[in-house]
């Protein structure tokens, strides 16, 4: 995975990363106490015992080892620590002679503090106990030596008396005996003095400090709580990254341009970046509220692509000079406005947002745009234009509160854009949509472009019934909202209608992954019939062409098409000079109305100019309107 795509995945799952990090931090805080103790660790402490200076000749290592291994030392240590389980302390300590002059205690424990306390207690118990045992042994030796000294002293006194009574020759003979007795007594008294000094001082001592180290601890068993929590954060973040990558692998929802083109088998003609929460709450189209925003430029790019690849009637230069209101009315009567149906597979695909902003972008070109809210299940277009609820398409199609179509056309604050809201539907929405053909035929003559917002295709059949009345279809897709199988179903349904599909508008677009799919077959311009040989079961695809008003592209002779009924009213069927002069009422298209159109533009009617004029046929809607008047 490329670094850019990795960062995109991490940004998509940032909540998961934050949750894993917070959970690891909380767990690490709860499981690691403050200070140096670590409850879930294992520690080992070592302490050495050696003879004191000058006592090396009198202390025997085997005697000290034998005493340290006895139960007296462990019992004394348990009493000092206040522990009743003497056997448990015995299992946690080992003692061995490191050398002839050093004894080594090794203790283990769950925490550093408990391990060190046990080692210290064993060391002190050994030193104190061995000193007591040595003093007791010395006292017994002193007592025995004192008795021996008394006997030697009595023998010496007898010899001295014999020497004093003897003559000179006998004294010479007794003098060696007297010297031997004196030397023996002196030696005994010296031994008694040494034993007295030995019994008054410790024979062994602790060598250095306690050596403690951690054994088999976890990552959170650092001696510092701050370090432990830092390790917990790193561990939680790592787990979050792994979980995000796994979810990204398992998530098959369409998020990129390449994925959308492959799933729909349609070109993506517009990529709209994700809008922030603040921009989504605006009560007017983003194109007029934030003209310099990157998303606004993306909607303008979508408009330009739609004009270049859509029906020829969309690329006509209305509103750029050359037509006054009467001429515009006459032109609309001859060449009705094109109808663009904006639809989506599921709800939440940004369909209504696209309609509002595309209408505002088309209004910037001078075209007068009429927006019809045919989403009777959840009408929201009035909120996107900052308008209150009122009568609209529901009342018009059901025959309630209807005097004329123009009475329901409400100007918006967006220049050159008017709206017929969804209204308040009292009948079943599917029954209303079935009657939309007559209303759309009349609406074509009140604008340069008619945009329709509909219900989601996979959730309701409304959009499928409206497709037959449209000149082009624009599919919207919110990144991460549709799965490939759902996109394939939308493409299959559109292919059955035969209506040209301009392409897909991808909202919330992400960075494209891999190479683009170059195998898409793009037919000719959407104004005519699709190019021969499209893939079975797929919607027809447009091919971008350059707009050349002065040099129209030559095309073959059009095939005869089924004749459609003329939906013009009687006054619209009169000659053009009479229709222009009778002053028929026109709807107001905001502050931006008044643009003109250059001369010499090509004809952009829906029917070829070569077809003969059609017979006027009054529809049910026109008859009802005539009866009302």
UniProtKB/TrEMBL annotation:
Its EC number is 2.7.10.2. SMART domains: AAA (SM00382). Residues 550-587 have a biased composition (Basic and acidic residues). Keywords: ATP-binding, Coiled coil, Kinase, Nucleotide-binding, Signal, Transferase, Tyrosine-protein kinase. Pfam families: AAA_31. Residues 536-549 have a biased composition (Low complexity). CDD domains: BY-kinase. It is an enzyme of class 2 (transferase). Residues 337-497 form the AAA+ ATPase domain. It comes from the Bacteria. SUPFAM superfamilies: P-loop containing nucleoside triphosphate hydrolases. The keyword Coiled coil applies. Residues 518-629 are annotated as: Disordered. The keyword Coiled coil applies. InterPro entries: AAA+_ATPase (IPR003593), AAA_dom (IPR025669), Bact_polysacc_biosynth/exp (IPR050445), P-loop_NTPase (IPR027417), Wzc-like_C (IPR005702). Residues 135-169 form a coiled coil. GO terms for molecular function: non-membrane spanning protein tyrosine kinase activity. Residues 1-37 form the signal peptide. PANTHER family: CAPSULAR EXOPOLYSACCHARIDE FAMILY, TYROSINE-PROTEIN KINASE. This is CpsD/CapB family tyrosine-protein kinase. It comes from Kitasatospora phosalacinea.
